[in-house]
Amino acid sequence: MTPLVEQPALPLVYRPRLSEQDFVTSDTNRDAVAWLARPDLWPMPRCVLIGPAASGKSHLAAMFAARQPALVFDDADLLTDGEPLFHAWNAADRARPLLMTATRMPRFWAHRLPDLASRLAATPQVRLEDPDDVLIAAVLVKCFADRGLRVGDDVVAWLVTRIERSFAAATDVVARLDQAALSERRDITVPMARALLEEQGELGL
């Protein structure tokens, strides 16, 4: 009889929830949310949304595009071919505004088109600020929920005071805890989170 071999748990593919109801608003992003809600008040039908990695730029862009016809370039600062963005900038109007997201200011973008650079320099910008503890806690809850995970409030509260205060760190720790829970076939708890951070030398407190 062939012995049974236990297969390792495979990571699940998940899609982040990007509806308006799923977006977490706080003092660090409230101005950007209000600005994107009223493109009719913009000085021109174009805007650059700048913020840290994993700060909700793509989520806000999806919300923006769901409200009205729009041209959206996510991670516009990474585009080495600036021609599509150049033509989109010229084509944008009040009926179809242009929203670009980036982690860097336009003068540091990857393209090398002088005509595009001059247009971007004149384009209004709105920023997402670094998160506070309230927002980090809410982001952790959302990331767990996006993966179909239920964790106790004690886990979230414990993580908020131990991980780096950044969106990227919150997203990363949830992904690693998800994988650990799958591998160990048990719920995510404070002891599991502590063991994970200690093992990787990341325990801040």
TrEMBL record:
Pfam families linked: Hda_lid (PF22688)
Protein name: Chromosomal replication initiator DnaA
Gene3D superfamilies, A to Z: 1.10.8.60
Source organism: Sandarakinorhabdus fusca
Membrane-spanning segments: none
Domain Hda lid: 141-197
Domain of life according to the entry: Bacteria
